[in-house]
User: What shape does this take?
Amino acid sequence: MITSNKVRIISLILILFIAIISVMAYLIYQAKTKETFNGFYNEKVLDDFSLKDSSGNDVSLSEYKGKLVLLNFGYTSCPDICPTTLGNLRSIYTKLDNNQDEVQVVFISVDPDRDNPEKLEEYVKFFNNDFIGLTGNEEQLKEVSDIFNIFYFKEGIDTDKDYLMSHPTSIYLIDREGKLILKYPHNTKQDFVVDDLKRLL
Amino acid sequence: MKFILVIMFALMSCGQDTEKGIEINNVWIREAPPGATVAALYFDINNNGGEDYIISINSPVSESAEIHNTQISPDGIGKMVKLDNVLVGPGEKLSFTPGGKHIMLIDLKKVLKPGEMHEVTVDFKNSGQKSVNAVVKGFSEGGSEDHSGHSMDH
Assistant: This one.
């Protein structure tokens, strides 16, 4: 009688122990998958959108399914932020070596008035021939802004031809299923982004 | 006697300071991608003299130049703020770097190629004009990553 009670208690303790370990393991696993990334975890299912590439073709985000997408916003008359970001992306992309074909870098111009397709193409390819520059009309860009929950606008007065723009400065990392997962603040260390990409590749 | 010596030393070192005045170092322009009509100019200022202000900048490579500060809001939206002048306090070291204060060279007159040197004149309210040479840096030679020790907080 006593022994069977003991067995019961020991089994109960064992079951409880296993349960606690399992829960802990699960929590650690979750924490690891979400928080050991260098970027800010920012999971968001993105609606598909379509913009024009430099040849005038419509390009949808869904076309890059199966690849990791590094996306950023800017304009070619941008003096400081955009060249810094694209320069960083160029170095990041170079560091991927053999995995480059699994990553697509996309630059979205929010200044379609000045960034015609040819200009955008020349600008983006200067950083890397594999990079893609996209833009669209106001309506299309508004749709993209809503999807990413961002905004941009012209600074100063409309008649000024040398106007500057306010625009998002982060790099957005989209996974192979087309879901936004990570965000990198402006000028994040290149190796931080490379490490995350290597984990996802 | 001691007191007079101290005063003399103080005066002498003061004089030296004003003589040394303002130093402008690490002057560089980031290579402008094709099609770009603007470029950014960066430098370090070391003020060994009294309070002064940068009031304007000009260079033969561009039609005009403005002092700008890049500001990024907590939600990641970046904007350029035009500054009329920049205070350089006595003894102050000031860095113009990517993502911070910089000179925007507007309407480039020529294509800037890495390795080229171009004259830049910085006009100070008290110290007058100082001309320095800026080197054009390409994206593969430090023109892209900010080495000022930027880190991310979680």
Helices of chain A lie at 2-35, 81-94, 117-127, 138-148, 190-200.
